[in-house]
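[Automated response] Your request has been received and processed.

Submitted sequence:
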Amino acid sequence: MRKKMITVGICVVLTLALVSASFAEQGNAQEKISRTIWLLKTGENGVGFSSENSRNYGPESFCITDEGIVILDTLNKRVLTRDYNGKETVHELINVRYPKDIYYFDSFYYVFDSWGDYGCVQKYTRNFILLDEVKLPKEINADAFNSFYINENERLCIRGNDSSYAVLVEDSSAKLVRTGIEYIRKDDNNLTVATGKSSWSIVFGENEYVRYLLENNGNMYYQRVRMVPDCSVLAGEITIEAVDSMGTYLGAYAVEKNEKTALANRYFTVYGNKCYLMIVTEEETRVEEVYLSCYFKSDMDMIVQEALEYENRMEAQMETISASTTRTEATNRANSMLSTAWTLRLANATIPANMSNVVLPDYILTIKNNGELNNGQTKAMSGIPYCWGGFDSQYSCPTFSSLMNSNKVAGNVSSANGTLVTGTAGLDCSGYVCTVYGLSSKLNTSGLASNLNVVSSQNSLQAMDCLVKSGHHAVLFYLWVNQSEGKMVILEENNPADYDDKVAYRTKYISEYLNNGYVMRTGW
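Generated structure:
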C-alpha cells in the first residue's frame, strides 16, 4: 500500500537561523534596501534560463526553510540547496516535465509538476528521496494552477492563478475544492481578502491589479502591478507590499524588472517575518532579503512618460499593415486550426537524411516511439503542429490534411535552420497570426510588432488582436476571463518543451506579456 501522501500535524513556525543584522527603521529614506544572501550563475553550467517561448523562463520557485535556501531549477529539472553554513548541494528530480513550485511542510518537500493539462505532486524527503506521487485528474486543467499552500485543516493544496480555487492533494488522490483564501471585491478600488479567520483590505488604483497573496503571522503579503495606461508599450511597475489585519500598511519594495529578467512563478516568500525575493536575469540568479519601506515612492509617472515617448517614436516609423479579412472570419479561422482533422502516418513522423536539423514535436514523437504507427497503422489527429517558419500561403496544397497525405513531415520544433525546411508542414507563432489575418506574405514577430496597428489600451483589446514581442513570440487575444484581474484566454502556436506543440488555447494573465516586452497590435 502506498504511503499516505499528506500527514496531519501542527505546522510549527521555525525561527530562521541565518546570522545577520536585521534591517533598522530607515526614517524617511526613499532608497531600496536589500541584502543578497545567495548569488549563482545563470545559463550554461548554472541555473537554467531561456527566452525562447512566451516570456523569459528561469527557476519557477524558491523557499526558505529551517535548513536553508532552496531553489527549484525548473529548466534543469533539479533542486539547488544552500544551508546556513554555506554548503551547496544539487538534487536531481525524477520524472518531471516542468516543475513549477516547491513547498516545504512538516519536514517534507513537495514539488508541483505541470505543463498544459498534465499535473502531479511529488513528495520528497529532506534529502530529496522521492516518496510518493499524485497525478491530478485529467479533467482538471493543471495549467490553471501555480503554487502550494496549506489550508485550514493542514492539508496540502495547489492554488489556482486567481487564488479562488485549489486542488486538494490527500491520500494519494486529488480533487477540486475551494481555497481557504478568497477574493471579495467591494468596489472598483478596494479588495477584501479573507481566510475565514482573518481579513485584509487592499486598496488599489486605476490601471492596477493585485495577485499572489501570501499570509504570514497575521499579515497579508501580495504583488501589486501598476500598468502604463492607454499605451501599448509594455512597461510598468511591480511591488511587493503588505498590510496587517487592522488595515495598517506595512510597506512596499519595488521589484527589479527589465526585458532580461525572468519573474518566477513564486519569486517572493516570507519566513520568520522577513521578506525574500528571487531575481533571475540572463547573467545571474540571486536570493535577497528585502526591506518593505513605509516610505516607498512609486516611479510610475516617470515610467509612463518614457513609455509614451518611446511609442510615439515607434509609431512615426511604422508602415501599417491591415488584415485582409473581417474580425469574425479571422476568429473562425483561428478556431478551425485547433480542430483541423488529419491522419498521421509513419511517413509524416519519419525525418529524411537530408533534414538532419528537423526535430519532431514531442507529442508526435511520442506516438511514433510508442509503436502506434508500425505495420501501416495510422493515428487520427486534430490541430496544426508547430513548424518553424511555417505559413499557410507557402504551401501549394490548400489544406494541412492534403500536405500530410503527400507525406510531408508533421512539424519541426528546431530553429537550427532559421526558416522553413522544405518537406515539413505546419505553422509557427507568427505564421499562425498571419494566416488568421489572411495576409498574403508572412511577417516574423519583428514585422508584426512594428507594422500592425496600435491597440491604444488594455481595455480596447478585442478578439484576434495580437500580443507580440519582437524576435520572440506572438499570441492572439481571444477573450477575458476576468478583465479586472487581467486574466484572459489566448490562442497561440507554440513549441514549449514536453508539451503538445500545436495550436492551443491557454489561460494567461496579461501581465505575463505586458511586463515582458510585448506590444498590443491589431490587424484592424
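Summary generated for your ticket: The chain is about 10% helix and 35% strand. The first strand starts at residue 34 and ends at 41.
If you did not submit this request, please reply to this message.
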